[in-house]
């Protein structure tokens, strides 16, 4: 299946570069390029791409607000959003994650990581660039008090939670825990329900907040 992607960045050279890199990947098609956040929201709502790749700092509407409108808690049918930033510990990134982004990456990440970010988001929002993720989550895990689960986590749910927080994809979690892919997805659904979170990034943040990862 070909993944349809929208790329939004106010700098033409960056936007064109991202679109060119993604367009050269097997199974990925760039269906739209947006010049700012408002343009991204309008095109995304009309075209319904599989993944929206949004810059953080854009005119008229920044990537945080665009993310909130496309993937926030009040969106009935949220889209997969990956945030792109120049700085790996940018306050805007944390805001975007809170707004519903499934992941983030740096603009200098390289073609392979960029393509992986898109595929991961389309596959349920796997964390991208674990070293960057770790630094960001450590920096912001103390900002909010962790919510209590509606019921205790099972031992296997704890295993899946830690694997996801380390940045593993569903397939990697299944291989590491020697379970089926459907079993991983079942545990993920149960975790999100118990913790009242929307995506894997929020699961990872909760793992750091509760000191399950150091």
List the helices and strands and how they pair.
Layout: E1 3-8, H1 12-23, E2 28-34, H2 37-47, E3 51-55, H3 63-71, E4 80-85, H4 91-99, E5 103-106, H5 111-122, H6 130-140, H7 155-165, H8 170-177, H9 181-195, H10 200-209
Parallel strand pairs: 1-2, 1-3, 3-4, 4-5
Helix pairs in contact: 2-3, 3-4, 7-9, 7-10, 8-9
Notes on the structure:
The chain contains ten helices and five strands, in the order βαβαβαβαβαααααα. α1 (12-23) links the parallel β1 and β2 (28-34). It is 50% helix and 13% strand. The chain has 214 residues and is an alpha/beta fold. α2 (37-47) packs parallel to α3 and α7 crosses α10. The mean pLDDT is 86. The longest helix is centred in the last third of the chain and has 15 residues, at 181-195. The chain has helices spanning 12-23, 37-47, 63-71, 91-99, 111-122, 130-140, 155-165, 170-177, 181-195, 200-209; strands at residues 3-8, 28-34, 51-55, 80-85, 103-106.
- Mean of pLDDT: 86
Strand content: 5-15%
- Say how many strands there are: 5
Order of helices and strands: EHEHEHEHEHHHHHH
Regions with little confidence, pLDDT below 50 for 5+ residues = none
Q: Give the biggest beta sheet.
A: 5 strands, parallel
Derived from helix and strand composition plus strand pairing, the structural class reads: alpha/beta
Q: Helix segment count? A: 10
Overall spatial form: globular
Instruction: Supply Rg.
Output: 16 Å
Helix content: 40-55%
For the biggest β-sheet, the strand order reads: 2-1-3-4-5
Q: Report the span from N to C terminus.
A: 38 Å
């Amino acid at each position: 299946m070909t993944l349809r992607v929208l790329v939004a960045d106010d700098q033409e050279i960056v936007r064109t570069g991202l679109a060119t890199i993604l367009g050269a990947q097997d199974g990925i098609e760039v269906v739209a390029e947006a010049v700012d956040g408002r343009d991204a929201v309008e095109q995304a709502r009309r075209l319904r791409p599989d993944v929206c790749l949004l810059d953080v700092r854009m005119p008229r509407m920044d990537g945080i607000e665009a993310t909130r409108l496309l993937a926030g808690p009040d969106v009935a049918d949220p889209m997969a959003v990956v945030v792109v930033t120049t700085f790996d510990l940018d306050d805007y990134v944390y805001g975007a994650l809170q707004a519903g982004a499934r992941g983030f990456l740096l603009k200098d990440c390289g073609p392979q990581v960029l393509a992986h970010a898109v595929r991961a988001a389309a596959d349920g929002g796997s964390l991208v660039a674990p070293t960057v993720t770790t630094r960001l989550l450590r920096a912001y895990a103390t900002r909010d008090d962790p919510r209590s689960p509606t019921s205790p986590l099972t031992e296997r749910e704890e295993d899946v939670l830690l694997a996801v927080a380390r940045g593993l994809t569903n397939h990697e979690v299944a291989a590491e825990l020697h379970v089926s892919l459907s079993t991983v997805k079942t545990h993920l659904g149960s975790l999100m329900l118990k913790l009242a979170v929307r995506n894997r990034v929020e699961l990872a943040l909760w793992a750091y907040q509760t000191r399950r990862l150091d």
